[in-house]
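Job type: complex structure
Entries:
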Amino acid sequence: MTHWAQILPNTGNRGTHSKERYFLEIRNRYKWLLEMGGERVLLYKRKYTGTRCPQFDQVRKTNQQHGQDTICFGTGWVGGYFSPIEIFASVLTPSPQTANIQEMGRRRVYIPTGWTIWEPLLQNGDLIIRQNGQRLWVTEVSQTRWKFFVLRQNFVTAEVERNHPVYQLPL
Amino acid sequence: MSNQFQINRKVRDAVILNLRRLFSTPPDQKYKYVELPSGEYDFDNTKIVISDVIPQENAFWPCIVVNTVVGQEQRYLGPDGGSEIKDHTGTVIADNMLSSIPLTVSIQVYTIDDTIARDEIIDQIYQQFKTLTDDLATNGIELWRDSFVAENRVFINDRWAITAGIQLEVYTEWTQDLGPGTTLAKIPINISVDL
């Protein structure tokens, strides 16, 4: 039995009546689900610290989004993203892929949602690269929790336009 | 202007050509405009696309769109033949009708999350039309006023889609050569009477 003041789950106690056991079991089942039905993707965690990009504009405190920016990839930090992490994710497409005609061209509107396990934690601005080369921004993340601890992460993405510098990222 | 028809199209095309020349010529151009030999966009190498309102196969940023060409022409309400020049026998020897129209050309610049590119591109356009207006002049167009227009921002998928622009007010005039001859002889329509 967990003490009422204990913050971290007592993973050592896996008895039949332990609530922690259910917690770990839920996590395990999510993991199994993804192993069976998920897809292997690359997760690029966006940098929010480090060495400032030489192209960083000191007046506006912002960075160019130019297609040839292979130093910072539009992030404002040298490198742009941390080394990719291979994760399993289930990428779903709840809405149809449509084309939005705008003055600057025909824009593909493709907003897949998905979910993955509790780690690594996703953030807005992270990048997911699928095996077919598709690059998706993470635009929204919501977590399912058990007593503060994350069980799984649901996310919404948007496809990155084709001339964005992230297409220059080394795989 | 050599061809008196398609005024709107010629003005728009002249502005597009001027912009394409601006963004393709200097070797150190940051926003280099590149076309394939077939005349299509070289999406692998171009850093900008420049066109009119017709949607391309895919969206591209930054993008310059010569958006609208609006204007107002004063028409002559007098009788036909006011511009005819006749000889002593009454035969028309020349019929040149002068027309002119002031037009406003709207150039929109589209970027995403990039106010630096927005300003650099607009500054280049402004500077270009300050000094080099060859393509406009070749087509009989004079630029007499320009203005910066208000910016618009829309938040799409966690990013700001920015629209800014510059407006050019131009003046163009041309002579429409209706040719010599009687009025009836000038109507170039053949009506078949073979019933």
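Summary: Chain A has one domain: 38-168. Chain A has a mean pLDDT of 86.
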